[in-house]
Write a structure and sequence with these properties.
The protein has helices spanning about 10-30, 30-35, 40-45, 50-55, 55-70, 80-100, 105-130. It has about 140 residues and is mostly helical. The chain has one domain (about 20-130).
């Protein structure tokens, strides 16, 4: 017998609004680290890589954090899900930062921290504005 939605799940319209809000927040907040510092295309140019194109990997990864926070339901606690998904989105590119001679561990740590921060901000703001911890 169907007793309705599972406890703790949001109605479809509220879930859709939550997801769209997370995506929009990710698109905006994903740019904040770029406004503050980088990534810096010239660090790639010296390696004969087109830096202006390569840095888009970091922008796209950071902007995708909102999407993943918006569609994920695990972990259920927003304050765990946001930072975790932010870290997971940035992890592959932080390994590229680690491989860069002009970057290394400092760039890796800063980029990973920026993903954690964007994820936490997306999940926290979405929670504050919608009252939902997840979709």
């Amino acid at each position: 017998m169907n007793a309705g939605p599972a406890a703790g799940t949001a109605p479809a319209a509220a879930a859709a609004r939550y997801t769209l809000l997370c995506v929009a927040l990710g698109l905006v907040l994903g740019w904040v680290p770029a406004w503050l510092h980088g990534p810096i295309p010239e660090k790639f140019d010296v390696l004969y890589i087109r830096g202006a194109i390569a840095v888009w990997g970091w922008y796209v990864a950071r902007m995708s954090i909102g999407f993943w926070v918006g569609v994920a339901v695990w972990p259920r606690a927003w304050w765990l899900r946001g930072p975790l998904l932010g870290a997971l989105c940035m992890l592959p590119l932080t390994l590229v930062s680690l491989a860069m001679p002009a970057c290394g561990w400092p760039c890796m740590a800063v980029n990973l921290a920026s993903g954690v921060g964007v994820g936490a901000a997306v999940a926290g703001v979405a929670r504050a504005l919608t009252g939902l911890a997840h979709r």
